[in-house]
Sequence to fold (239 residues):
Amino acid sequence: MKLKIVTLFPAIVQLYFEMSTMARAVKRGIIEYTLVNIRDYTCDKHKTCDDNPYGGGVGMVILPEPLGCALDSIDALHKHVVYVTPSGIPFTQDKALELSCEKEIVFICGRYEGVDQRIIDRYVDDEVSIGDYVLSSGELASLVIIDTVYRLIDGVISTESLDEESFSDGLLEYPQYTRPEEYRGMNIPDVLLSGHHKHIQQWRLTQRIAKTLAVRPDLLERAQKNDSFAKKANELSWN
Ligand code: ADE
Fold:
């Protein structure tokens, strides 16, 4: 997958691509990324990227001219363009799955009060919000989306790990434990030492249901209508 990130602050984004699993995906050629600095497409000596909004109001708006030139430099009109904004549709695991099928995605990172609407009208396919709160940086929102999407691409993470994760079947994850068996007087649940695979699976599913019921009852209601959940519960039936 090719990712192009159009930003005023490429340094914020660069580091992420150099770390951990993403760095490996880049090295293996699964991900190619390009950072496009909007400031490189300004024409005045001050490299101005923003101005006051027409009609008045607080904050600054990113100028259409440099941003449009930055987008033209990567032929964005012919690519899938995502603009991250608190005014977008909510980002979900389903949206991540949909984006993971794209060969190439351009992310526009806004700052201040956002970008000129004419840029959205001309270039943008998806306006996406990562949550009901306002960040000062579109860079962080783009990275959240990129991180969620790239790990769904074949070969990045094992399918077993993806299957077990929260949201793959609508339930939250079961608790995890690792060595030592006793930590500051706290022991791990006996069942995890039993070696009894089916009992462990049953315990994990029970934990997932209990956790989801406690913190996200809305998800549990949805999961009960989901075939993958019903199948799992059936396979692990306690009788
Ligand atoms: N930019 C600022 N806040 C945002 C949010 N919640 N989602 C996406 N982009 C943003």
Remarks:
- Strands lie at 2-7, 32-37, 50-51, 61-62, 80-90, 104-109, 126-129, 182-183, 186-187.
- Residues 197-215 form the longest helix (19 residues).
